[in-house]
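=== Structure Prediction Worksheet ===
Name of assembly: unnamed complex
Input type: mixed (protein and possibly other molecules)
Chain count: four
Listed entries:
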Amino acid sequence: MPESTKKTTIYDLAELAGTSAGTVSAVINGNWEKRRISRKLATKVLRLADEHGFALNMQARALSRERSGMIGMIVPMYDNRYFSSIAQGFEARARDAGYFPIVTCTRRDPDLELAAARAMLGYQVERLICTGTTDPDRLHDLCSHANVPTTNLDLPGTKATSIISDNFQGALDLTLALLDRFPGAEPDAVFIGGRDTDHNTRERIRGFKEAFARRGMPLDDARILPCGYAADKASSALREYAGAGGVVPELLFVNSTISLEGIISALEDITGPAAKKPTLGCFDWDPFAARISQDIIMVRQDVDRMLEALFDVIAHPADEGAGTVQLIEVPTILDDRAARFGT
Amino acid sequence: MPESTKKTTIYDLAELAGTSAGTVSAVINGNWEKRRISRKLATKVLRLADEHGFALNMQARALSRERSGMIGMIVPMYDNRYFSSIAQGFEARARDAGYFPIVTCTRRDPDLELAAARAMLGYQVERLICTGTTDPDRLHDLCSHANVPTTNLDLPGTKATSIISDNFQGALDLTLALLDRFPGAEPDAVFIGGRDTDHNTRERIRGFKEAFARRGMPLDDARILPCGYAADKASSALREYAGAGGVVPELLFVNSTISLEGIISALEDITGPAAKKPTLGCFDWDPFAARISQDIIMVRQDVDRMLEALFDVIAHPADEGAGTVQLIEVPTILDDRAARFGT
DNA sequence: AGCTTCTGCACAACCGGTTGTGCTTTTGTT
DNA sequence: AACAAAAGCACAACCGGTTGTGCAGAAGCT
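=== Predicted Assembly ===
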């Protein structure tokens, strides 16, 4: 029979049980034996707590313990498979590790990233994971100032441990697989999407170029178009490249699924919906995109392994403070459906 | 020059400024005029706060104000466009409204939903939005007990205001559009995916049936297969339906994008990747799925309008407690690309 | 019976803010 | 010069927990 007007506190329970708040606290936390509370009283308190749907006020607990139990993550977006599975997996693992996970998405907006980090610090997160943030080092500075460790995911920083995909190797493998589709020929190829200011895009471009070098093919820098990630930027970049003639490349390396969205729609506009699409490669995976044409190869980032590495770092803050800033690179997975069907 | 060992508190600032904690608090909160703090002292405190990267401890604030500023949302998944845009839009709007949004995904697991709600209550969220939860009423009871108002999104409950799509009308429109692809004929049609225990699935089935009724076509209940949402459930349900003969329906109403994933892969297994796919309808939208075939029609739920309605409810808790439990239905949007290309 | 040891618990300080109250000093008025 | 009003701030209680300390009574020992 809860009085329902206010939340039940340990003081309420103490009064109901005819005991003190400290005792109730001990019982709730399961240290009643350590604190020599009689089993009888403990049972009584637990029963009352249950009857009243008592829930500890974690804010108060955090205040006195000086540990909030919260762990924060900043993510650029939820609306693609890569980041959404990161968020989803992170939450599950964080809960398993006894944390209360707080994930928030900041739409690749540096100011919002900073504001979100500040908010999280205000709410006393014990650690912040910066996923795909535009300036991980700035976030690191902000956090380290408040004594909150950070870890970078997806995009690396120079001041904290970073866990990222092996972008170079992934892009190299992808490009080689794409080139294999043109035996003996030199396809008209283009790399599109991403920002050449970010580490991942630069590494992927490096992998793209390396593949051509290995095949002994020339590659003009005009074919590298890091126009940004957004769908509309990718589509206008492609339209511009195609020009008035409407000639699209034979081979397209698209640097994210969100850019791919723009590319697909631009292709339809330029060549019509029924026309044969160019051979597509995409760094990142999506189940539907993988089936949109027979001629698409996708690179899947190994989110599980990345998260495993992340929670390894969290569980063993060994070199905390030691000058060693690690860069952990996780191999990617090539998803070449046509090749699978072929065998 | 921060001492960096510990977080700066208002007490630290007070000492540095040669004033009291209460005064610092007033300055930080901007009520220094109301509390007649001199501009000079206020500026000094603000300067110090800035120099030391001071951040208010929101837990402590929440404790004393008895208002946490946090608003929680439970979502089943992040990995589809519908829920991810809900999460993304919710966060943006919540921030605009001055809240600190906490979103968490519970993978359609009733126990996890309950546990997550409890955790959120512990952290003193001021309100909980239950999106697509399996048992909204149970969550409502839990929360109302702690005096925390809830609102249901996507799936309705009977005890709190619910904002959902007009599932019946959406399904009706979709099915009619699908049937229009078979002029003069009675296609072999199947409804697949979802749970017949949830309100949305039931309403969509009702809309599906209604369309056939309006066209004067018979519809056997054996063609309704609410086999669950998961991709593998949908694919085995389809395989089973197709039987040894491998005859797939001509018209498929798929009840969610996640089920569609399973359907697409099952179709490839049954008929081969190059075969003509059946005419597909899908309740929910995905940019890549929409382009996977010429013959797919998708229903897009109007997330923006739903969130607008949600924050309307939040801003005007008018009938708080009044027996009126509202059900707000938002129209859906039909995405028929082929029809658009046709005109 | 007297002393020690152990059991079982209450008490109070503290975590970092917020806010009502009231005291001192300055300013203004006549 | 005397007094009222206003300005400028300090103080302390409170929010709901946690935890170190200490005290009363029971139990054990001789």
